[in-house]
Amino acid sequence: MASPSILRIERLNYGISAVLVLIALITQPKTVTLGLAAGAALTCANFFVLRKLIVRWTTDAAQGKQGNSAVLMLPKMIALMGLVAVSVLFLPIDVIAFAVGYSIFIVSIIVESIYSAMSPSLGTPNDESNHG
Fold it and tell me: Residues 101-112: pLDDT tens digits?
């Protein structure tokens, strides 16, 4: 199972993407909205698949099994690059908006990092009597 932090990053990715696409839908031209939505959809799908592969990979490693999930990383990356190329070349999108939508995962990671650092229950226990 994925760590709670990874799951929070993924949920933040979905939430931030949805909010930005809705705002763009109201305030931006169609090409910008479509670019933002396409980039956000690709980054959300990429993060989902990556999480599944990493969880399987680490679970297999913890059990001492030789899994094939590491081998699946290359086809995943090739498919992702192909989808980015197809999106940029063939969809009527604003490329800058696409890049912004695709970069939402960075914001999700930063927000989760700040949240984890500020939440005492998420970090290691701070026991003053255990100075080892």
Answer: 999 999 999 999
* Residue 129 CB neighbours (<10 A): 4
In a domain, 57, yes or no: yes
pTM, two decimals, is 0.81
pLDDT at 81 over 50: yes
How far apart, in whole angstroms, are the C-alpha atoms of residue 52 and residue 60? 12
Helices of type H across 1-132: 4-27, 30-62, 73-90, 95-102, 104-118
Domain carrying residue 89 = 4-116
pLDDT of residue 3: 83
Instruction: State the Cα–Cα distance between residues 65 and 121, nearest whole angstrom.
Output: 33
Would you say 78 and 72 are in contact if contact means Cβ atoms under 8 Å apart?
Answer: no
